[in-house]
């Protein structure tokens, strides 16, 4: 999809009740203008098309500290995206605000790689929820949340809530395997 011409791809967003938006970049990689284009224009454009095509539940990966009134570009743009998508009135909107994502990237981000290495051998081992979010934890939480009923129409899940959701899935898998083993 050419995200600069997202409206030309409306059909790609049809036929699904649930959509996941995990799109994002950094100011370092794309510059301030490029960051805003990806993290606001593209993300909000995707949500708009998903809504027009009948999406009921939209999942948005945002960032810890997102705040549309921030003086800093990164949290400000993330907060503006959240606000714009919230105004679209999806039947259900789940906004995830993870901490530093623990992921190996294809492109080289030297400072991020250094920070991840330091965090993975210190904070992540002692108190993983404080500053980091492994991508498998985030993915499990998002998938489980898609099937969880009786949640608010709009929910903002901070890092602790993301870990709690992922643990629920792990606990339910353990319960299922116990039941299977007992049979």
Automatic annotation (TrEMBL):
<dbReference type="InterPro" id="IPR036291">
    <property type="entry name" value="NAD(P)-bd_dom_sf"/>
</dbReference>
<dbReference type="GO" id="GO:0051170">
    <property type="term" value="P:import into nucleus"/>
</dbReference>
<protein>
    <recommendedName>
        <fullName>NAD(P)-binding domain-containing protein</fullName>
    </recommendedName>
</protein>
<dbReference type="GO" id="GO:0005737">
    <property type="term" value="C:cytoplasm"/>
</dbReference>
């Amino acid at each position: 999809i050419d995200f600069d011409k997202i409206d030309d791809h409306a059909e790609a967003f049809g036929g699904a009740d649930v959509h996941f938006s995990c799109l994002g970049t950094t100011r370092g990689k794309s510059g301030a203008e490029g960051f805003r284009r990806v993290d606001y224009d593209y993300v909000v454009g995707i949500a708009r098309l998903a809504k027009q095509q009948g999406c009921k539940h939209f999942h948005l990966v945002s960032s810890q500290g997102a705040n549309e009134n921030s003086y800093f570009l990164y949290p400000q743009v993330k907060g503006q995206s959240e606000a714009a998508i919230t105004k679209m009135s999806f039947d259900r909107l789940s906004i995830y605000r993870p901490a530093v994502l623990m992921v190996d990237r294809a492109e080289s981000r030297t400072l991020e790689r250094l920070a991840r290495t330091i965090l993975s051998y210190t904070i992540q081992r002692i108190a993983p929820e404080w500053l980091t979010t492994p991508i498998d934890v985030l993915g499990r939480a998002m998938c489980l949340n898609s099937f969880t009923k009786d949640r608010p129409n709009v929910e903002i899940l901070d890092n602790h809530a993301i870990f709690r959701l992922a643990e629920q899935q792990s606990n339910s898998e353990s319960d299922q395997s116990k039941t299977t083993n007992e049979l």
